[in-house]
Task: inverse folding
């Protein structure tokens, strides 16, 4: 078992976030379609008791109670609509002042300096979660979520900056440094971490190995069993950020629900 010192996210970085995240009691969560969001929701439930009452997969948004849409927090959801409080991890073209994300201040101009990691590890650090009792395999799974290990192999210095200095979890630098990329891709395949969460006939389904992950971490990691009613449908599109397309985006700003820069000049977004 690895023994870690207890750290917390660098205070100077925490100060960039609005303080809504400090107490989420009585809040409800919007789950998105992957293990990063599901595991993050699990952590937030353990910390504050908040439960998943919404689901968003970039093409549709649904709630367990379609008449109750107040007090929601998006988890691993880079919504850019007004007053959306969300935990995210992507660089966005339009900025949300209420996002908690290490990429909050990253733009196209400094895109290569982005944090290419998970919302899950951001949340663990934000709430000062002690990882000293985690086994090496558990830590390997954590750094495999959202393929976070990849950043180490194309920019070790940037990886160390985020994990050693900002998140203050230097153990991940040591963990990734011991193996090649294929080692972590094998972990992804072992637990099906790359599989989506899907909404079918109102209920959530996935091929992620939740049973295996629950056994590994000694937790009950399961999907909500509630029925979700779809209230909004979106078109999901990717575009090149040419000057002409930027003008179109600016005109359609009020219709855009969420966005993510997947490359410096390519934007993926969902709009009404």
Result:
């Amino acid at each position: 078992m690895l023994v870690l010192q207890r750290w917390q996210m660098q205070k100077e970085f925490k100060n960039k976030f609005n303080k809504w995240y400090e107490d989420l009691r009585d809040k409800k969560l919007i789950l998105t379609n992957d293990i990063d969001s599901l595991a993050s929701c699990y952590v937030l439930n353990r910390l504050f008791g908040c439960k998943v009452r919404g689901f968003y997969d970039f093409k549709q948004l649904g709630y367990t109670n379609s008449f109750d849409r107040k007090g929601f927090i998006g988890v691993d959801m880079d919504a850019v609509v007004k007053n959306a409080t969300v935990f995210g991890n992507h660089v966005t073209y339009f900025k949300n002042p209420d996002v908690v994300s290490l990429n909050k201040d990253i733009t196209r101009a400094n895109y290569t300096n982005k944090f290419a990691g998970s919302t899950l590890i951001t949340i663990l650090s934000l709430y000062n979660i002690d990882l000293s009792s985690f086994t090496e395999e558990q830590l390997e799974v954590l750094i495999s979520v959202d393929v976070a290990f990849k950043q180490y192999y194309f920019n070790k210095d940037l990886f160390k900056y985020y994990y050693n200095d900002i998140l203050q979890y230097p153990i991940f630098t040591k963990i990734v440094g011991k193996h090649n990329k294929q080692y972590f891709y094998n972990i992804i395949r072992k637990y099906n971490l790359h599989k989506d969460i899907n909404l079918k006939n109102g209920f959530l389904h996935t091929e992620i190995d939740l049973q295996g992950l629950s056994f590994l971490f000694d937790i009950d990691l399961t999907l909500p069993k509630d029925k979700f009613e779809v209230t909004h449908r979106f078109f999901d599109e990717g575009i090149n950020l040419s000057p002409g397309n930027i003008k179109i985006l600016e005109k359609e700003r009020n219709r855009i629900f969420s966005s993510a820069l997947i490359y410096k000049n390519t934007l993926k977004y969902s709009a009404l």
In short: Residues 108 and 257 are 19 Å apart (CA to CA). Residues 7-132+195-272 form one domain. The chain has one domain: 7-132+195-272. The two ends are 49 Å apart (CA to CA).
